[in-house]
Amino acid sequence: MRDQIKKGCYNYALIISAGLLALLPLYVHVSGDDFYLDLANRLMILAIAATSLNLILGHGGMISFGHAAYLGIGAYSVGIPAYYEIYDGLFQLLVAITVSGLFALLTGAVCLRTRGVYFIMITMAFTQMAFFGIVSIEEYGGDDGLVIDTRSTFGNFFNLEDTVTLYYFVLASLLISLYIVKRIMTSPFGMVIAGSKSNERRMQSIGYNTYRYKLVCYVLSGCLCGYAGALLGNFTNFISPEMMDWTASGELIFMVLLGGTGTLLGPLWGAATFVLLEEWLSRITTYWHFFFGALLIIVVLFARGGIDGLLKRLRLT
Amino acid sequence: MDWVLITTQLLNGLQLGLLLFLLASGLTLVFGIMDFVNLAHGALYMIGAYFCATLTELTGSFLWGVLIAVPVTAAAGALLEISIIRRLYSEDHLDHVLATFGLILCFDTAVHFIWGPEGKAIPLPAFLDGRVTILPGIEFPTFRLSIILTGLILAFVLYFIITHTKTGMLIRAGASNRQMVSAHGIDIKSLFTVVFAVGAAMAGFAGMMISPITEASIGMGNEIIIIAFVVIIIGGIGSIKGAFLAAVLVGLIDTMGRSFLDTLLKLILSAENAETAAPALSAMAIYILMAAILAVKPQGLFPPKGR
């Protein structure tokens, strides 16, 4: 009974947050200040990316240190067609998801042969390859990046040029992503993934080909992050190889860990804390990276289970 | 083909390889013995370079700068180990990555705060600043040659210590089985601190060696640390021999790729295609090498024994 109440609280928290987010443009419209809308957009897009990483990292125990590759692939899937004046959003999103999925399939097939720290490093190596690959293509800006002059359009129905439209599109994407990830996590497939995280050998002896299951999970996660990358490209209007830098992958891991690994809403809290903290600290001091780094160390040393764990503990006592 | 250019580039590759070895040896020992992923190793490389720059200014001599900066960097490493790193050993790899990522941010900002955003150049003394003739018709910068020589000497000394002394034996034993070593009454905590400090000194030394060529700058360790990780993964974690071979291999492939790949590609591709493909491929070469090696040998060339 108490569990049900708690679960109810949890759902309410989500509904209330979603409701507040949905009403944000109204406030912005009244106050005339776009700033919060941009902040919320960035927050939600990163939350989708962190959610996708959480699917393999938190739920499946596969610590990918190269997830930013998919952000980059997604963003370039918007940028490169836009460079050739193809602005069709459906096409761009389809490219983003397909290419990310293929990249995840090819690299995942190699990466998943290794484990532990070798896995961490080889995922990073593949992302470095993508990074240098993009850097060396002069046609698409190389090091300097690429400006997206027009955001995605969806036929005559709507386009993302208007910030409020983009905002609702991102919000809907976030909610749908969370729903999909929830379904995956609670499905028999998700159970196999969770099982191979806690005891892979046992899952194998039951008769599951855990390698295949993990590969599928890895590809799904890549597709979702590629989608987030396409949104990010639309949002920033400017894409560069920097998006795939290994520090960007580190930041995604930080969001997942800060929020709480393996929980549904953890990455959302993590991304929110990350974005708001970055905004707040960078206003106070130019040396804000120092406090950010110190916070990372403190989180690792003292805050087990992240924000989600903290919320759960608070509700328990 | 131009033999002078090839020889020069081979030496440049060797020099890069030995520099990588200085970084990777400390990294692989810390990783192998303490099972600790230290992304902040590149930060020690950076502060070594900055210490050296300041001390060179103060003493007026690069040699004195290096001689004093090495123990200072080692002390900084020991301090770091005792204050923060020690508490992380019992956590998992993910936490290591995150905490040391945080350390990088702290170090980079601290350097920005103390030394300012500009890089710092380190002037070389006259006797290192020239060029020497190593073979008839082939000249090579003296300083780069001295990096090669000190690198080789340090590699040899390190190899001797690891394979022929009692401390080395303890380090190897620690890499195979930590609990067993400490069960035999060895003070493994102090051993960890010493190894970490030595690793820090080697990384700092590498930073001091490269700065007269490139200058000390913020974030200089962030790119090379990734390559150092590639090196120790290829070589097999915990193996000094593996780190040495992999470092030289990576140094040579990277340097040779950047200078000759376009010429090679022109043999099979059109000139235009070769011009576009070569930079991409040479930048990716070492990562392709690592992925290929891990696909065949998931634990690197010289995998750790006994685990």
Highlighted features:
heterodimer; A: 317 residues; mainly alpha; two-stranded antiparallel sheet; 4 strands; 76% helix; 3% strand; globular; B: 307 residues; ABC transporter involved in vitamin B12 uptake, BtuC; two-stranded antiparallel ribbon; 11 helices; 2 strands
What does this structure look like?
The complex is a heterodimer of chains A (317) and B (307). Chain A has helices spanning 2-31, 35-59, 68-83, 89-111, 117-135, 163-186, 188-198, 200-206, 210-236, 246-259, 266-284, 288-302, 306-316, and strands at residues 146-147, 153-154, 158-159, 238-239. With 317 residues, chain A is mainly alpha-helical. Chain A has a domain at 33-242. Chain B is built from 11 helices and 2 strands. Chain B has helices at 3-34, 41-59, 62-83, 93-115, 142-164, 166-176, 178-183, 188-214, 220-235, 240-268, 271-296; strands at 131-135, 138-141. A two-stranded antiparallel sheet of chain B has the order 1-2. The longest helix of chain B has 32 residues, at 3-34. The radius of gyration of chain B is 20 Å and the shape is globular.
